[in-house]
Design brief:
Radius of gyration: 15 Å
Shape: flat
Helix content: 10-25%
Order of helices and strands: HHEEEEEEEEEE
Length: about 150
């Protein structure tokens, strides 16, 4: 199931105190890498949509963290470079570290004082088939993601 980012951003802004903002040097580096990857494919033209990054406090420490959503990236020479069949990349930038997932969609869920990053993933991530729904819930603690998934990031 593909979650539409505009709806996710709207929910995030209303429910979680998120804001679109200027990006950190790590976010800019991720965008530069994407631009380079696009250019390397037949000299493609790269574009990042206006709402590719959202800032919010993921770990509850009072400092803003970033979610960078590559589904807002396009490349003129490859329709599937940033949004392939198995999903797109979502990056969380928390205290100078980047954590990345391949997702079909995402949203923030407020659970008490916690922000839960809910990830819609390919069914193979849950031991099923690609078309089957699969979700992972991630909460940030001590500046790192935590999930029940064995061997998680």
């Amino acid at each position: 199931m593909q979650l539409h980012y505009c709806c996710v951003l709207f929910v995030c802004l209303l429910a979680s105190g998120c804001a679109a903002a200027t990006s950190s040097s790590l976010a800019k580096s991720l965008v530069d890498t994407a631009r380079t990857d696009c250019t390397a494919l037949d000299n493609g033209s790269f574009k990042a949509g206006a709402d590719y990054i959202v800032t919010l406090d993921l770990d509850g420490d009072g400092e803003r963290d970033e979610l960078l959503d590559e589904s807002h990236f396009t490349c003129s020479s490859s329709a599937s470079l940033f949004t392939p069949n198995g999903g797109y990349m979502l990056h969380a930038i928390v205290h100078g570290a980047v954590f990345s997932w391949q997702v079909n969609g995402w949203r923030i869920v407020d659970w008490g004082e916690d922000k839960v990053l809910l990830l819609a993933q390919d069914g193979t991530e849950c031991g099923g088939h690609g078309y089957q729904p699969c979700y992972e819930a991630v909460v940030f603690n001590a500046h790192r993601p935590m999930t029940v998934r064995p061997g998680s990031r």
